[in-house]
Specification:
Layout lengths: L3 E4 L27 H10 L3 E7 L1 H4 L5 H19 L5 E5 L15 H10 L7 E4 L2 H10 L2 E5 L18 E3 L5 H4 L2
Parallel strand pairs: 1-2, 1-4, 2-3, 4-5, 5-6
The structure holds magnesium ion (MG) and zinc ion.
Family: Belongs to the gmhB family.
Keywords: Carbohydrate metabolism, Cytoplasm, Hydrolase, Magnesium, Metal-binding, Zinc
Subcellular location: Cytoplasm
């Protein structure tokens, strides 16, 4: 069994677009400071690396699945070329909240796909995200969870018990002190 880190995309790997907006092409995709170094650290610790991202922009017809996968291919190639980081797989949910699918976080469908395909031990794995839906998905699946809290007050709403992360950080760098 392998241990893994599940990463939300927007707000973790790249700077989050404003609420209600989406990254629709490469020019809108800006890597976050320190993400390459963090992923390299996690890879060197022996973790599999999975991206699990809600992209309702596909279901809304703003971006095709093909174009989204092209952005992801470019993202992966950028990380491997610059940091020697190799993402094991990128999972995305193309559905809208009203579709009632089993993959859109806080549902656990994407995480469970990774478990089935790659033999992941969830209790030795982590979910990192910047929204409470990421935290709930991680907790429901049985991983440990880290919430990235930005200074823009995105997560200032008081969370209930199911939404409470194991750890909170203000920067990606802090994660290397938590996951060892
Ligand atoms: Mg996010
Ligand atoms: Zn879905």
């Amino acid at each position: 069994m392998q241990r893994a880190v599940f990463l939300d995309r927007d707000g973790v790997i790249n700077q989050s677009p404003p609420r209600g907006h989406y990254v629709l092409n490469r020019s809108e995709f800006n890597f976050k400071e320190g993400i390459g170094e963090l992923l390299k650290y996690l890879q060197d610790q022996g973790f599999l690396l999975f991206v699990v991202t809600n992209q309702a922009c596909v279901g809304r017809g703003l971006l095709t699945g093909h174009d989204l996968r092209n952005i992801h291919t470019w993202m992966s190639l950028s990380l491997s070329a610059k940091y020697k980081v190799f993402l094991d797989e990128i999972f995305y949910c193309p559905h809208q909240p009203t579709d009632g699918c089993i993959c859109r976080k806080p549902e656990v469908g994407m995480i469970m796909d990774a478990v089935k395909k790659h033999g992941v031990s969830l209790e030795h794995s982590w979910m990192i995200g910047d929204s409470l839906n990421d935290i709930v998905a991680g907790k429901r699946a049985g991983t440990k969870t880290i919430l990235i809290e930005e200074s823009d007050g995105k997560n200032t709403r008081k969370e209930n018990k199911e939404e409470r992360p194991d750890f909170r950080v203000n920067s990606l760098l802090e994660i290397t002190k938590i996951i060892q």
